[in-house]
């Protein structure tokens, strides 16, 4: 799932899909997907590692993200930077780098699961009484019960909820594409039939 990797920015494919489904204020009664208004932002891929290595490194310097080992964060193939961080709304020869609202003074301690800002957890000293049933997270120690409200479990449930919503959004998108494809196939079949009849 593509989302803007700039710290503190919540723009993503999912928010774009939600915007498309919402009503347009300029064209009352129409949704954004049919009203013709331009999208509020675009999700732009990182420069190619082989073709533009210097530009890619410059982007990473401006983004200033680190991974959990305090090394320079490396983008994944699906990582994106949204157009709101570019002076011209997109990379141009004059302004090729993301420089606007880069989140360097972002102070929110609530971790957005989409941004995964790494904060080293305060782990208490080990105790033999504590049951370690969350080793896969490796960020906290918890003696979780069925209805646990520790920070790790709360974050885990939030992430699960976000993934469920994104999954539903993708399912809806696939259903729409399938419906369009079926309509197009039916239209082609009718046109083909009519051409044969007219000959």
UniProtKB/TrEMBL annotation:
<dbReference type="GO" id="GO:0003677">
    <property type="term" value="F:DNA binding"/>
</dbReference>
<protein>
    <recommendedName>
        <fullName>THAP-type domain-containing protein</fullName>
    </recommendedName>
</protein>
<feature type="coiled-coil region">
    <location>
        <begin position="160"/>
        <end position="187"/>
    </location>
</feature>
<keyword id="KW-0863">Zinc-finger</keyword>
<dbReference type="GO" id="GO:0008270">
    <property type="term" value="F:zinc ion binding"/>
</dbReference>
<keyword id="KW-0862">Zinc</keyword>
<dbReference type="InterPro" id="IPR006612">
    <property type="entry name" value="THAP_Znf"/>
</dbReference>
<keyword id="KW-0238">DNA-binding</keyword>
<dbReference type="Pfam" id="PF05485">
    <property type="entry name" value="THAP"/>
</dbReference>
<keyword id="KW-0175">Coiled coil</keyword>
<keyword id="KW-0479">Metal-binding</keyword>
<feature type="domain" description="THAP-type">
    <location>
        <begin position="1"/>
        <end position="101"/>
    </location>
</feature>
């Amino acid at each position: 799932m593509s989302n803007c990797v700039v710290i503190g920015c919540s723009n993503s494919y999912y928010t774009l899909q939600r915007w498309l489904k919402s009503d347009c204020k300029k064209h009352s009664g129409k949704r954004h997907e049919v009203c013709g208004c331009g999208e509020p932002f675009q999700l732009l891929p990182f420069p190619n590692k082989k073709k533009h290595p210097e530009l890619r490194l410059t982007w990473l310097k401006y983004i200033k993200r680190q991974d959990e080992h305090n090394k320079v964060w490396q983008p994944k193939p699906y990582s994106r930077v949204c157009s709101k961080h570019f002076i011209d709304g997109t990379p141009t020869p004059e302004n090729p780098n993301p420089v606007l609202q880069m989140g360097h003074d972002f102070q929110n301690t609530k971790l957005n699961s989409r941004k995964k800002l790494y904060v080293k957890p305060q782990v208490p000293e080990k105790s033999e009484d504590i049951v370690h049933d969350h080793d896969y997270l490796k960020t906290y120690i918890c003696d979780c019960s069925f209805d646990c409200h520790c920070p790790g479990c709360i974050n885990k449930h939030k992430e699960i909820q976000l993934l469920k919503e994104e999954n539903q959004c993708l399912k809806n998108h696939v259903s729409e594409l399938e419906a369009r494809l079926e309509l197009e196939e039916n239209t082609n079949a009718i046109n083909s039939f009519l051409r044969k009849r007219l000959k």
